């Protein structure tokens, strides 16, 4: 109708284009990583860490929080959960923008190919964040911003192609199906 054509002329007149996602790479050296076993979600003392411990650790790494629990640090006294191992190099790739589900599936498939050759990593993760103030969430509900606007899911993929799927939503949001 008339409203649609008015909108189209507005967009073409102002040359509004879809923003290309911004991609950044960084290398984390000598990173303490939790030891994980794909078949053990709860973790076992001195053998492996739990899914909750991994999720917390991942939050610290993605936010570049120090993991060494120095008493002089006023920012964080967090330290990597036990048992852990030091990884000489870890690669972090961040893609920021509007990304359609098909592209996320494509990324997952490409990440799984990483295990074929060379077999350097035991596991890797893919975290997908919705914007904190996004109007929509899973299912039919509006996204409740109230406090933190949590709205994310995380895949942990293991070398044998087992995987964990972790999801976090705000207290007022519907859980995903």
UniProtKB/TrEMBL annotation:
Q: Which GO terms describe its biological process?
A: endonucleolytic cleavage in ITS1 to separate SSU-rRNA from 5.8S rRNA and LSU-rRNA from tricistronic rRNA transcript (SSU-rRNA, 5.8S rRNA, LSU-rRNA); tRNA 5'-leader removal
What gene does this protein come from?
Rpp40
Q: What is this protein called?
A: RPP40 protein
Superkingdom of source: Eukaryota
Q: Which PANTHER family match?
A: RIBONUCLEASE P PROTEIN SUBUNIT P40
Molecular-function GO terms, alphabetical: ribonuclease MRP activity; ribonuclease P activity
A GO cellular-component term linked to this record: multimeric ribonuclease P complex
Record the organism: Phainopepla nitens
Query: Transmembrane segments in this chain: where?
Result: none
């Amino acid at each position: 109708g008339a409203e649609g054509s008015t909108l189209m002329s507005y967009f073409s007149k102002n040359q509004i284009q879809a923003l290309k996602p911004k991609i950044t790479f960084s290398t984390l050296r000598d990173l303490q990583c939790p030891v994980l076993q794909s078949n053990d979600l709860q973790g076992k003392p001195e053998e492996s860490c739990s899914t909750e411990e991994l999720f917390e650790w991942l939050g610290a790494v993605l936010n570049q929080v120090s993991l060494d629990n120095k008493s002089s640090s006023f920012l964080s006294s967090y330290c990597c959960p036990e048992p852990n191992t030091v990884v000489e190099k870890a690669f972090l790739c961040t893609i920021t923008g509007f990304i359609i589900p098909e592209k996320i599936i494509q990324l997952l498939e490409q990440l799984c190919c990483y295990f074929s050759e060379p077999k350097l990593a035991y596991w890797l993760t893919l975290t997908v964040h919705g914007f904190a103030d996004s109007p929509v969430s899973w299912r039919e509900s509006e996204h409740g911003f109230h406090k933190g606007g949590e709205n994310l899911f995380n895949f942990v993929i293991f070398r044998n192609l087992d995987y964990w799927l972790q999801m976090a939503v705000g207290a007022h949001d519907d859980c995903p199906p």
